[in-house]
Design a protein that fits this description.
Order of helices and strands: HHHEEEHHEEHEEHEHEEEHEHEEHEEE
CATH superfamily of the largest domain: Response regulator
Number of strands: 17
Structural class: alpha/beta
CATH class of the largest domain: Alpha Beta
Number of helices: 11
Number of domains: 3
Shape: globular
Largest sheet: 7 strands, mixed
Radius of gyration: 22 Å
Strand order of the largest sheet: 4-3-5-6-7-15-17
Length: 389
């Protein structure tokens, strides 16, 4: 087995193990096919079978000939000793932000897990994860007598919060709602968009557009307001024509995983970027949208960054997966989850308790190859500290 395949094989086994032990993959749930896993992780089917065999040997899954591979019921799974009462912390994701499929098929779960592990190191806490779909079905973990706190992500209405979550210590992340009686830790989508406009302006860009195929989501609405604020602060006019927002295809009321809804961005960009007076820069939601934008613009004969500069919210773990290194502000999702976990542990243990505080994680600028730089622009990293408001 080559080194690259060996790394992918270990990644597959580790990620499945984490999702099963955390409860995110529920008991009796059928795993993806061997062909799907082989394609996703870039390994052979024989390597997939080896990873599954290791999980089966540990009692985490059971393979049934002709039916597939299923998660073993919890009472049959070897588990670590139970945590002390009140030391179970549950992470809840909501379909109002992304579907269960999107959550499990991207690096989102990895960021959640790594963030929690950073806070839980050397502490006797148990971490579980669950998802609430558009049917608002309540996961069994919310009724666990050991539950000490909940960290949730996604838009939650006040009635649901008051009925099911308010009785617990709660911290929301990345979808702020001032009506809910809890604390928040935010990645600050508004601030990232505002800083992106100001940074592009400092480099000489004067007609700046913003793009997303998730226009109805809370973070993108926040980015929209930050974009407008940034334009105002640098003295550039705002035009709705430069807001390239739409919602990609939905399935069962949820936005489909972008990996499964690979529609071209060309129809949304063609009119604006085939004119002589096209925008000279675009702010994108993330690496994936920036890459799809680049592909569309180059099909119109425009070069990046020669004709159009691109910025996006940077995820350091994804930079190596794209041919162009994008410039943008570091999306610190892992740090957001680590801070949320730290705060809820402090609350459980009676330290530094501040009710209903809002913590913003200040973004840091990561230099790349997708914008033009003036000679007097240095290579310093901006930001990097946390702010509490």
């Amino acid at each position: 087995m080559e080194n690259s395949e060996l790394r992918a094989y270990y990644k597959l086994e580790r990620e499945l193990r984490i999702q099963i032990r955390s409860g995110f993959l529920s008991e009796h749930q059928r795993l993806r096919s061997e062909n799907y896993l082989a394609a996703k992780y870039g390994i052979s089917r024989s390597s997939v079978r080896l990873a599954l065999a290791n999980l089966e040997a540990d009692g985490l899954i059971a393979r049934k000939k002709g039916s597939g591979t299923f998660v073993t019921p919890r009472y049959n799974v070897p588990v670590a000793p139970k945590s002390e009462s009140g030391k179970l912390i549950l992470y809840l994701s909501f379909s109002s932000l992304y579907s269960r499929e999107t959550f499990s098929d991207t690096n989102t779960f990895r960021a959640v897990y790594d963030g929690f592990q950073a806070a839980f190191a050397h502490k006797n806490y148990e971490f579980r994860a669950a998802h609430v779909g558009i049917d608002w079905q309540i996961p069994d973990d919310l009724h666990d007598p050991e539950l000490g706190g909940v960290i949730f992500e996604g838009v939650v209405d006040k009635e649901f919060f008051d009925r099911y979550l308010a009785k617990y210590r709660c911290i929301g992340v990345n979808c702020y709602n001032p009506e809910l009686d809890c604390s928040w830790v935010l990645e600050d989508s508004r601030g990232i968009a505002e800083l992106s406009v100001k940074h592009l302006y400092s480099l000489g860009y004067r007609k700046i557009a913003i793009l997303s195929d998730e226009s109805s989501s809370y973070p993108i609405q926040e980015a929209y307001h930050g974009y407008r604020a940034g334009l105002h602060k640098v003295g550039l006019p705002f035009s709705e024509d430069l807001v390239i927002f739409w919602d990609r295809e939905k399935s069962g009321g949820e936005l489909r995983n972008e990996g499964l809804a690979r529609s071209s961005f060309k129809p949304y960009l063609e009119k604006l970027f085939t004119s002589a007076d096209h925008p000279d820069a675009v702010i994108c939601q993330d690496h994936y949208r920036a890459e799809q934008t680049r592909i569309a613009l180059e099909s119109f004969g425009l070069s990046i960054p020669g004709d159009v500069g691109l910025m996006c919210r940077v995820s350091l773990s994804l930079k190596k997966h794209y041919p162009l290194i994008y410039e943008g502000f570091y999306a610190r999702k892992r740090d957001v989850l680590a801070e949320a976990a730290k705060q809820i542990i402090d609350d459980i243990e009676g330290r530094n308790v501040v009710n209903c505080r809002v913590t913003y994680m200040r973004p840091s600028l990561i230099k790349g190859e997708s914008v033009r730089h003036k000679e007097n622009i240095g290579n310093k990293t901006e930001g990097g500290k946390d702010e509490t408001k």
